[in-house]
Amino acid sequence: MVRKIVLAAAAGLLLAAGVAAGGGAFAEPTPPPDPASIPPPVFDFDTDPAKAVVARVKFDSRTQAHVESTKVTTSRARGHSGEPSILRLRLTDVDGAEIEQINAWSPLWRLDGGPNGSKAVRSSGTGNFIVPFSPALAAMTVTDVRLNQQVVTVDLAAPIRTFCAANPADPDCKESDLAVTAVEPAAPLFGVLGQPITVTVASTVANHGPDGPSDARVRQEVSAAAGLTIADGAPVTTDVPVAVGTPQRLTRTYTVTCTQPGTVNLTATTRVAPKLPSVVDAQSANDVRSATLGVTCAVPATVNVKPGSADNVVNLNPGVLPVGVLTTAAGEYGNPVAIDATTIDWSTLRLGSPSRILAGLGARETHGKIHPEDVEELDERTRDGDTDAMLHFDPKADGLAVGDTSACVYGRLRVAGAMVAFYGCDRVTVRP
């Protein structure tokens, strides 16, 4: 149904408003029609809205204009029907979806009150575009129909937001205290340099009322200090309805890669705001929440299970399993960071399958120390003259199980003067 809109302008002109379709300019603009050939609008005083949004727009030419002011008015305005297609107004909601399109009069078309109505086209002019109030209304685009050129876009969300903040009891407005109540980032026990891991961030938003449900616009973002890269870290905005007393939980995953050893902080931030400008959230202090997670970045290490043995058969029987951690230069065995295995802190060591190590489990070093010696390299024959670390574990003690194909060592050693995590694995065959 075509809505009645209102003409209003400075110097006695009241301009109609409505919805406009955007478009590009023609190469050679079509001259305006003879003003005398355009019938004047027919005013309607009975079907106009009781509440409207008014945008005062200054036209510097047919193709250039700027907004002077916007406001919501509760005064009834004159409406008119049978508008000529001089301007077209396009009303859209907060998602950019079209609500309505309506033809409108132009403040450049001068009315003199004579029998033929319009008489001339002015080079500039100011008019008030008045559109019916709607809680979903967000923007109005004004297009010159004959030139098929967009002239100006007007933000209507701001005056609606201002009006509802001052009049929360208005039937077209809602009052909802939206809040971010939790931000919970989680990561694996550690990541290895150059190997991506998945970080999960769970955010909870709530509506403390009094009105609801209200659509909430939730923005989740992450940032990291030097030493971490985030492959898919662009902020993400999600719209969710939030009823009073029924929080919503949103979970997002990120691919994160360690680029330097140590503990590197990742910060997750979540913000919430009403989606509609007609929803008032007076408590802004709880609209944003952040949480910081320390991601442990481990250096890769070269591990040799049962040095000197090519088959690496591990029997789950009484006894200890010898495991060597090799001292390596940067680039050796593809390791990006040089490792001095003699700096290993034996009390931090664990041996186990990858899943058990990531779960914080694994067998401890049996002898309570490391044994510095020149351990066989991975060819099981060569000794390169470096002082490595020989370790001993009971594989049954929370470490390995039949079916495991990898035995991994996790712990801490000194790199560039700091104690950092290290991790390395070797293939094994586990037997009862």
From TrEMBL:
Gene3D superfamilies: Immunoglobulins. The keyword Signal applies. Keywords: Signal. Residues 1-27 form the signal peptide. It comes from the Bacteria. This is DUF11 domain-containing protein.
